[in-house]
Design a protein that fits this description.
With 410 residues, the protein is of the alpha+beta class. The protein is 31% helix and 27% strand. It is built from 10 helices and 17 strands. The protein has a 5-stranded antiparallel sheet with strand order 3-2-1-4-5. 21% of the residues are buried. The N terminus and C terminus are likely disordered. GO terms for molecular function: mRNA binding; structural constituent of ribosome. This is Small ribosomal subunit protein bS1c. It is found in: Plastid, Chloroplast. Keywords: Chloroplast, Plastid, Repeat, Ribonucleoprotein, Ribosomal protein, RNA-binding, Transit peptide.
């Protein structure tokens, strides 16, 4: 009994209000020194039990509310929680596209806020499909909001590595497929060469142009850094294969060149038999006999590489990619190309118009001769020299062409 009293010695609590725990002073004195500690111990034990029961009931009530009405009195709803997840939680797997805002740039790239647990980084080599030294060269500055692709993770700080270059590659391949479907001519800059051909840059992608598909006889070194008109031959993104043809592009361009047209050209090289002229990516030959009505014994006395001049198209072979040119037909008087080439270029369009009129007259006379010997064809000749069906006001037996003059040599 003494040991029990010793265990509770020193416990302190406020006076109890319940009457059943109170004792009379004289009784306490009769029991002895141990009566007061024993009564206090019983009181403390009963009070702790009551507190535990109250706490247990409070937890039971809370559990029941969570089971029956979990959101009662809570301002943050389930919809708010879903919206928060959509805003701050995203798929960080490789190849995923995410929206982000650039907030800092440096010499190596840019930091991007993609609302993740940590910032993401855009390296300068992944900032553009073209080679750049600083991200700001392509408009990547603080405040820019753009779509990026996740291409990796930095293990040191768990930050994500982003790329714009990958997205631009996808768009470039899509653009090339579209251009191939439309069968259009594009410009490609020659940026390299190998044994089989040259490498041209189109839409930011490197493609191959075989030497067999280049219309000119220029070497790879001569073509380096020059732009060539090209057409798509093969576009295969899966195999990363892009093939062009310069010959097909030249054939399309030549189809638009009419005989008698005057074009501006640049002398590329001189040969004993004539001069090769570049007319907008097409190589044409100005034969020595077509330079002037007067005899030209040495082409170098009239033309030099690099000279710019006006020439008239005489003919072109689309399959072979050959164009025949003339300055002789543009001379106001014979020999002007040797004595006064400036006058020839000033009068070029006027002389070319005269040449085309003579050609039209010759063709009209040829048609008239044909109708003279074939009146049964049922065709008539218009005032412009164009053959067509008989008009309603013409006799069914055809026209009387007995008075049509003979064709004259032009």
């Amino acid at each position: 009994m003494a040991s029990l009293a010793q265990q509770f010695t020193g416990l302190r609590r406020p006076p109890l209000s319940s009457s059943r725990f109170s004792v009379k002073p004289k009784q306490t004195q009769k029991v002895g020194a141990f009566a007061s500690p024993i009564v206090s111990a019983v009181a403390v034990s009963n009070a702790q039990t009551k507190d535990r029961l109250e706490l247990k009931k409070m937890f039971e009530d809370a559990y029941e509310r969570c089971r029956t009405a979990p959101m009662e009195g809570v301002a943050f709803t389930v919809e708010d929680f879903q919206n928060a997840l959509e805003k701050y939680d995203f798929d960080s797997e490789l190849g995923t596209k995410v929206k982000g805002t650039v907030f800092c740039t440096d010499g190596n790239g840019a930091l991007v806020d993609i609302t993740a647990k940590s910032s993401a980084y855009l390296p300068v080599q992944e900032a553009s499909i073209h080679k750049i030294k600083h991200v700001e060269e392509v408009g990547i500055v603080p405040g820019l909001r753009e779509e990026f692709m996740i291409i990796g993770e930095n293990e040191a700080d768990d930050s994500l590595i982003l790329s714009l270059r990958s997205i631009q590659y996808e768009l470039a391949w899509e653009r090339c497929r579209q251009l191939q479907a439309e069968d259009v001519v594009v410009k490609g800059k020659v940026v390299g060469a190998n044994k089989g051909g040259v490498v041209a840059l189109v839409e930011g992608l490197r493609g191959f142009v075989p030497f067999s598909q280049i219309s000119s006889k220029a070497t790879a070194e001569e073509l380096l850094d020059k732009e060539l008109p090209l057409k798509f031959v093969e576009v295969d993104e899966e195999q990363s294969r892009l093939v062009f043809s310069n010959r097909k592009a030249m054939a399309d361009s030549q189809a638009q060149l009419g005989i008698g047209s005057v074009v501006l050209g640049t002398v590329q090289s001189l040969k004993p038999y004539g001069a090769f002229i570049d007319i907008g990516g097409i190589n044409g030959l100005l034969h020595v006999s077509q330079i002037s009505h007067d005899r030209v014994s040495d082409i170098a006395t009239v033309l030099q590489p690099g000279d710019t001049l006006k020439v008239m198209i005489l003919s072109h072979d689309r399959e072979r990619g050959r164009v025949s040119l003339s300055t002789k037909k543009l001379e106001p008087t014979p020999g002007d190309m040797i004595r006064n080439p400036t006058l020839v270029f000033e009068k070029a369009e006027e002389m070319a118009q005269t040449f085309r009129q003579r050609i039209a007259q010759a063709e009209a006379m040829a048609r008239a001769d044909m109708l003279r010997f074939q009146p049964e064809s049922g065709l008539t000749l218009s005032s412009d020299g164009i053959l067509g069906p008989l008009a309603s006001d013409l006799p069914a037996e055809g026209l009387d062409l007995s008075d049509v003059p003979e064709a004259e040599e032009v």
